[in-house]
Amino acid sequence: MSMIEFHDVEKYYGDFHALHDINLTIEAGETVVLIGPSGSGKSTLIRTVNGLEPIQEGQLIVNGQDLANPKTDINRVRKNVGMVFQHFNLYANKTILENVMLAPRIVLHRDETENKKVAMEMLDRVGLANQAPKMPAQLSGGQQQRIAIARSLAMKPKCILFDEPTSALDPEMIDDVLNVMQSIARDSSMTMLVVTHEMGFAQAVADRVIFMADGSILEDDSKEKFFEGEPTNERARQFLSKIIKH
């Protein structure tokens, strides 16, 4: 079953053509990694999936809902599509536990006893249950990003979008976040769409690797073909050779 379908999608910012003729299907349970040079349209593409960026042409279907249809309730779509950003966006005046419980309380109207139980389970899943009573400022950047992941998981979504979740972290904090993401990909049926520069993560958990440049998808391969074989697109080959050399 398809979770996300792009059909002839075009995206513009004024006269700037940000996404060109995007045709892409992501099946339920797949882990798909988007890579490519800065400014290639990766983050724009991922932000269209939960309606943060509207599309101008084409059709975008997410969990059976057509985002191009003005009658579609975007909040209903977002109940099933979590997102983890570069920056954590935690509420500084709420405890870690309160941050994780907030969206299920407001959006899902989850019973408070059940809500706390689920929140603690998700904090445990990211290895931070012991931090529940603390405030965000008391945690490191890597811990805050893991809290942001727990917050998304607490909604029990069918799909999570990750927009360069480690790019704002100090190098020594990156592995803990990537390990949590790997465990989600490995141990759940969650659909994951991940924009990242972490090639080790892509090689470890991706079902597919999508290479973008200049707003277009130039390569869509299994991770084995992309990393161990050779991409068919010359731009992708050049990008990969630079990544490997560094």
UniProtKB/TrEMBL annotation:
Subcellular localization, as worded in the UniProt entry: Cell membrane
The ABC transporter domain, residue ranges: 4-239
Membrane topology: Peripheral membrane protein
Keywords for this protein: Amino-acid transport, ATP-binding, Cell membrane, Membrane, Nucleotide-binding, Transport
Segment forming the signal sequence: none
UniProt cross-references to SUPFAM superfamilies, sorted A to Z: P-loop containing nucleoside triphosphate hydrolases
Spans traversing the lipid bilayer: none
PROSITE patterns assigned to the protein according to its UniProt record, in alphabetical order: ABC_TRANSPORTER_1, ABC_TRANSPORTER_2
A GO term for molecular function: ATP hydrolysis activity
GO cellular component term of the entry, any: plasma membrane
InterPro entries: AAA+_ATPase, ABC_ATPase_HisP-typ, ABC_transporter-like_ATP-bd, ABC_transporter-like_CS, MetN_ABC_transporter-like, P-loop_NTPase
CDD domains: ABC_HisP_GlnQ
Family listed: Belongs to the ABC transporter superfamily.
Name of the molecule in the record: Amino acid ABC transporter ATP-binding protein
Species, as recorded: Levilactobacillus bambusae
